[in-house]
């Protein structure tokens, strides 16, 4: 497999394209925007929305296998192509239980995997105790569509607002218990065409306003917990007969139990550290899997790494070169800039990874805060 079609042309496809160069694999991308990050690195581009299955039919003519950088696709329309012999990796059946957050929760529960209590909204008041979390069943990302609701009054107001603003119906939402977690964790798992599995180091992720701000690798957890999370990844990858990389986001409760928050059937922000800190990056691992190659070694090459997202904090067309250069002066730092021409609050514009010579939470956090002080400096003054 030498040519991989990718549905989606954002930063994940861009980083996959860089990994592809190393493997001699070319990417053809389906993405709507001429300035989308992956356009510059792709061998060819089909300019179309990601849910345009007719365009994916054109994409199929230009590549050997099709994969995904996001899940906002029209699965039913794509299944016609799959029946005609187009090769999707992961296969569409592996995506089917995951794209809707309610279906995903049901799938995980039925597999016997630990999830928070959840429900659909039926009637006036939720069956769960407040605070509750409501989540759009589809098309949520970076916390868009996720709301933490403290009481019934706020609950009613939120639904009324969403109804007016986006014409959404209660049935479009999943309700779940609020987990007062001690930490959030994540793991990237990969499965090859032959069923070989690799898992990346388990990381701690830190979210603010539901958006990932930092990732520390590896997470400080017991080997028993690590083995349990590894086994969750294995169960899931095998039961889906997944080919490629998927991400599992987890809550670690105060009493050391893990609950799955979400599965992303693709490369993920929580695995960006692997570009600089692992033998093989999540992007290379994904391409290896979908191209039918043996998987690489997913071990860390350093005792500790911290990844910090560079999130937009204003509406602007700035390339922030001064701040990026200043951050790059921090020892053992790699700055990854996605080349987006427009900045908006909360938009992921780039990320920074710093490798440390020893595992130290305090040192990792001090470096992260230093980077954030440089990056957000205009915002805070
Ligand atoms: P998205 O799919 O947009 O990334 P998530 O469902 O992963 O949204 O939620 C984003 C963040 O919101 C989580 O990382 C967590 O910090 C918080 N969150 C989500 N669900 C819960 C919950 N049930 N309890 C507590 N916090 C939650």
Brief synopsis:
With about 375 residues, the protein is of the alpha+beta class. The chain contains 12 helices and 17 strands.
Q: What oligomerization state is this entry in?
A: single chain
Q: What is the CATH superfamily of the largest domain?
A: ATP-grasp fold, B domain
**Would you give the CATH topology of the largest domain?**
D-amino Acid Aminotransferase, Chain A, domain 1
Low-pLDDT runs: none
Mean pLDDT: 94
CATH class of the largest domain: Alpha Beta
Per DSSP E runs of 2 or more residues, the count of β-strands stands at 17
Any idea what the CATH architecture of the largest domain is? 2-Layer Sandwich
* Silhouette: globular
Main beta sheet, described?
9 strands, antiparallel
Distance between the first and last residues' Cα: 51 Å
Strand content: 25-35%
Helix content: 25-40%
């Amino acid at each position: 497999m030498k040519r991989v079609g990718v549905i989606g042309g954002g930063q994940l496809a861009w980083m996959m394209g860089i990994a592809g160069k190393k493997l001699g694999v070319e990417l053809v991308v389906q993405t709507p925007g001429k300035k989308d990050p992956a356009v510059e690195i792709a061998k060819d581009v089909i300019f179309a929305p990601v849910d345009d299955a007719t365009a994916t039919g054109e994409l199929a003519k230009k590549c050997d296998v099709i994969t995904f950088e996001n899940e906002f696709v029209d699965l039913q329309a794509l299944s016609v192509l799959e029946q005609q012999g187009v090769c999707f990796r992961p296969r569409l059946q592996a995506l089917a239980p995951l794209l809707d957050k309610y279906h995903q929760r049901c799938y995980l529960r039925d597999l016997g995997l630990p999830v928070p209590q959840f429900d659909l909204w039926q009637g006036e008041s939720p069956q769960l105790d407040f605070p509750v979390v409501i989540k759009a069943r589809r098309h949520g990302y970076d916390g868009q569509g996720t709301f933490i609701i403290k009481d019934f009054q706020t609950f009613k107001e939120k639904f009324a607002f969403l109804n007016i603003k986006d014409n959404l119906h209660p049935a479009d939402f999943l309700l779940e218990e609020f987990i007062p977690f001690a930490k959030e964790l994540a793991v990237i798992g990969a499965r090859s065409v032959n069923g070989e599995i690799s898992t990346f180091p388990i990381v701690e992720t830190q979210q603010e306003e539901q958006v990932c701000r930092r990732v520390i690798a590896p997470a400080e957890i017991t080997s028993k917990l690590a083995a349990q999370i590894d086994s969750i990844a294995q169960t899931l990858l095998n039961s889906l007969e997944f080919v490629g990389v998927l991400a599992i986001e987890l809550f670690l409760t105060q009493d050391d139990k893990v609950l799955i928050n979400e599965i992303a059937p693709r490369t993920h922000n929580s695995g960006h550290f692997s570009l600089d800190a692992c033998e093989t990056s999540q992007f290379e691992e994904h391409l290896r899997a979908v191209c039918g190659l043996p998987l690489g070694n997913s071990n860390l090459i350093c005792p500790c790494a911290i990844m910090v997202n560079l999130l937009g904090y204003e509406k602007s067309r700035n390339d922030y070169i001064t701040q990026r250069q200043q951050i790059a002066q921090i020892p053992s730092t790699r700055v990854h800039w996605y080349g987006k021409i427009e900045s908006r609050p909360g938009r992921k514009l780039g990320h920074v990874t710093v490798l440390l010579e020893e595992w130290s939470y305090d040192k990792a956090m001090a470096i992260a805060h230093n980077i954030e002080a440089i990056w957000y400096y205009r915002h805070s003054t």
